[in-house]
Prior knowledge:
The protein is α/β, with parallel strands linked by helices. The protein is about 25% helix and about 25% strand. It has helices at about 10, 35-40, 60-65, 80-90, 100-110, 125-130, 195-200, 235-240, 255-260, and strands at about 20-25, 45-50, 70-75, 95, 115-120, 135, 140-145, 150-155, 155-165, 165-180, 185, 200-210, 230-235. About 40% of the residues are buried. One of its GO terms (molecular function) is transferase activity.
Amino acid sequence: MDKVVATALEAVADVPDGASLAVGGFGLSGVPNVLIKALYERGVGGLGVVSNNCGAMESGLAVLLSAGRIARVTGSYIGANKEFARQYLAGELEVELIPQGTLAERLRAGGAGIPAFYTPAGVGTQIAEGGLPWRYDGSGGVALASPPKEVREFDGTEYVLERGIRTDFALVRAARGDRHGNLVFNKSSRNFNPLAAMAGRVTIAEVEELVEPGEIGPDAVHLPGIFVQRVVALTPEQAVDKGIEQRTISAPAAQVLGAVSN
């Protein structure tokens, strides 16, 4: 039952080239940076990644993306990641963009053993009708487009069929975890982490605080250990190494008052 692995490199040692990964995080919040860096150090490539976004500010999945290690991304948001956009438009990267709520439910469904489900999100658009560019040819043309999906009517409303997602591995980050793999996430860092963890056949969790079994009360567990196969305890330095995506600094109060009085 003790799922603790000594190092991040040891935890990802069996992730092969071409593996599919579900990765938690949203922006810079709750991103398993240590495990991602371990994959980078191993030189693994040709990866298929399922994640809300593909890293930001040269951190998270952007480390693997910039090194050309990612072949396909299933996600919801390109955002301000210019390298992501460049690779996509240049035909170097296959990208399946889907509605954010649909992505969340596809991960959850895959982890719950549900092969597919119907949702109204995307009906009447290229999400359902097909034709979304998955890969460009580098000259502005579409080399590979999304196929059409099944649409059915229930009680007068149309719904599109979406398939659950299962991946070879999942990488997540939690605030606390015990040796059995039970995890607790802190505030917004909960985001896609529990869903990604459910979708992975082998789920690896980096935890900021490792505790003994029983120290996390049953009602406090956000993700049961049944979904987690490996746990890596972060060092204090790794645990507090968290970036800020958008920093806003207010003018000093005296300066503001002076401007008003003038």
